[in-house]
Amino acid sequence: MITIKQIAFGNSSEAYIQSGFTNGLNIISSSENHVGKTLIMQAMMYALGSAPMFPASFPAEDYVFLIDLEINGNRSLSILRSGNTFIIKEGDTVTPIESVHDFDRYWSNHIFELPRIIKDGKVHIVSTDLFEQMAFMPQAKRNTARIYGGRYKKDDFMEMIYAQAGLVGKTLNDGELTEIKNKKQKLETRKKELSKKSKKLSKMGSALTAISPTADREETDRLIAELEKLGDEITELKKQKNRFLTRKVKNEGVLCQLRSLNNSLDVDSLECLVCGSREIGYRMNGSKFIFDITTSDMRSQIINSLKERISEQENIAKELDLEIREKQTRFNKITDSRNITLEDIFVYREDYISLEDIDKELTLIADELSNVDRIIKTDKQISAKNKVDRKNLKDKIVAKMNKIHRKLGNNDGSPDYSDLFTTEGKPYSGSEATEFLMARMYALVDCLHHQLPILVDSFRAEELSTGREEKMLPLFKDLENQVILTATLKEQEIGKYWGIEWINNIDLSGYTPNKLLSSKYCAEFANEIERFGVKLMQL
How far, in Å, are 67, 132, 248, 250 from residue 76 at the CA level? Predict the structure, then answer.
């Protein structure tokens, strides 16, 4: 179980620190809007690896974010984030991480394993950004028909839910399977129409006519499209491999410098020619903090972290190299079996430049058909039992959502929920959207037993009635997960949570609107940052 103990964010000029969270139900409240409740919640999610969701007026890139966690009651772990760089501190061990992708890998390997889903025909480890959407509801842009962010879709969210329950794989329901087969039929019809036009316009004049006596335009199109697709894939894989090797070389350079520094400090000392300081710093690219590597202890930790990073980058490069070789072997087999050269391909493309529009559409259709066939094939590979288990899990989650819906007072004849998302054309809005999303969050915890804290910004938004609030809070109080909510209270409601034993009320009343961060926290914030062996850069 992950429990948030403290959140802090700031820079050398201003900062804010909030501690005092309990393992149970916490409500951050105020009598005014815009005092910073939303900033606190967004800072928590950002520090946990999510994509930034801050308002445009808040330049997150100018600040450093620190979150202290307790894991399963026996591990203390802290995360420091600046832009896309992170530092993880557990005990005396400090681990620098240079990208969000690497942070996701660290999370999956060292905190809690992230689910693996099938995306674009490949096994894909979901990001913390998607994973944490099971347990986070922002104040703005609530939408019951889709997830937050642009990289993933709601189908990916559902795949993650199934994977979390051990039901990995891509399956289609009857409606989806019918739809995809209809799409395939339309694509094949369109392909035949274009092929007829192409044959009428084509005059085979290139070296590719010698491939076989029965070679025709359609076969040649397919062949060239396949070779070009393989060529593009090989090029992209080589780019990825080069990126990892470049990062590896840079890290090796830093490692070499640190080792050299170790040797020189054993016999002499380094001193700044400008200020005379003997303090030495190491900064990760793009971050707002600098590691103090004056001590051998910190240098050793950075060196060990770099070694691990270099080893991982080398392994990824090797995996990509194997994939490149496999695709090159396929490319060579096709060209060798038909005695085609790259010159032949070039001539072919020149000969048929006038048919470029038809060729492009045929290539796109071939790609789409390939994708459709892959989806259908993957679907067939899912066992019948897996499909049944998936349906049962989804039905169980929706049933739990409706149970919560009824407990909150669904006696007005409104229909029950039928899915984890509404349709794009009929999303819920206002308090109905809040109820739907709260019911879904509760159901996911109850059915999947995930370990994330529940974070809801402005849970009373859109005039959620007092009666429904009084029914909702005890439900979330009984969860094993930590729950953190925010609320803006009316004047007559101030103090309504005081004295309720099972609610930890963090009251921000009295804070000046839009002035949450201040210089009074700077010294304490700098001390918190120095736990990681780093110092803030001066603005």
Answer: 11, 20, 30, 32
Q: What is the pLDDT of residue 205?
A: 41
Domain coordinates of the chain in residue numbers? 203-264+303-351
Distance CA(65)–CA(435), nearest Å, equals 31
Hey, what are 344's tokens? Answer: 């032949």
Return the structure tokens found at 86.
């992170």
DSSP annotation of 107: I
Q: How many Cα atoms occupy the beta-carbon half-sphere of 51 within 13 Å?
A: 11
Per the CB < 8 A criterion, the answer to whether 52 and 70 are in contact is no
Q: Which long-range contacts (CB under 8 A, 24 or more apart) does 178-187 make?
A: 180/372, 180/375, 180/376, 181/376, 183/368, 183/372, 184/369, 184/372, 184/373, 184/376, 187/365, 187/368, 187/369, 187/372
Distances (CA, A) of 165 to 371, 444, 448: 27, 11, 6
- Classify residue 291 as exposed, middle or buried by CB count within 10 Å of its CB (0-12, 13-18, 19+): buried
Measured between alpha carbons, how far is 476 from 39 in angstroms, rounded to an integer?
Answer: 23
- 3-state SS string over 7-65? EEEECCCCEEEECCCCCCEEEEEECCCCCCHHHHHHHHHHHCCCCCCCCCCCCHHHCEE
Q: Which of 101, 108, 46 lies closest to 247 in space, CA to CA?
A: 101
- How does DSSP assign 312-366, residue by residue? HHHHHHHHHHHHHHHHHHHHHHHHHHHT--HHHHHHHHHHTGGGHHHHHHHHHHH
pLDDT of res. 504: 94
pLDDT at 331: 75
Q: Interhelix angle for 384-407 vs 430-448, to 10°?
A: 130
Question: 77 has which bridge partners?
Answer: 69, 90
Q: Say how far apart CA 289 and CA 537 lie, in whole Å.
A: 6
What is the mean pLDDT for each group of 10 consecutive residues in the chain (539 residues)? 95 93 92 86 93 86 94 93 91 86 90 85 83 89 82 89 84 63 77 67 44 48 72 82 77 68 50 52 67 68 76 80 79 65 51 56 75 69 75 95 84 80 87 88 94 88 68 89 90 82 89 85 91 74
pTM above 0.90, yes or no: no
Mapping DSSP to helix (H, G, I), strand (E, B) and coil, where does residue 419 land? coil
Q: Determine the pLDDT at residue 41.
A: 93
8 A C-beta contact, residue 536 and residue 64: yes
CA 84, chain centre distance (Å): 12
β-bridge partners, 10:
15, 64
